[in-house]
Amino acid sequence: MTKADKTAAIEALKEKLETANNFYLTDSSTLTVGQVNKLRKLCYDNGIELHVVKNTLVRKAMDSFSEDRNYAALYDALHGPTAIMFSESAKAPATLIKQFRKDHERPVLKAAYIDASVFMGDEQIEVLVKLKSKEELLGEVVMLLQSPARNVISALQSGGQTIAGLVKALEERGGAAQ
Questions:
Q1: SS3 for 107?
Q2: Which residue spans within the chain are E strands per DSSP?
């Protein structure tokens, strides 16, 4: 790889890191070509970008960002073969890795960067699979806010029906007594 190629690769990584809120560093080194192709297809189908990267180039790209990105915490994961997964969804790569590992030994999670939080090690995969998206959290908040209002409306409606039923029954009794 020439110096110009390295510079271009670093710039491309900088652009991806600048726009990415979520990415995973993985090791898929022992997978066969067929298995890697299957993994790439699954990534493509799930809206995940998968790139095999050189650790030194990733580190140089990360070094260009300020401290608020917290990329320095990821440096320990930058050893050995590394593939990086970029995704809009925080949990999509974790779900894909877990699904793929039902039949394969790898990829192994080295680290994940989710909205400025760093998750280190493969044991974090279960935590990442359980993450909720922003839309899911907003939906839960809206449901919680609507719940008391629904309960009040429901109680008023059922109470109104009960009162109307009692009045009707009393009318019928009164008509039957006369």
A1: coil
A2: 22-27, 49-53, 82-86, 108-114, 117-120
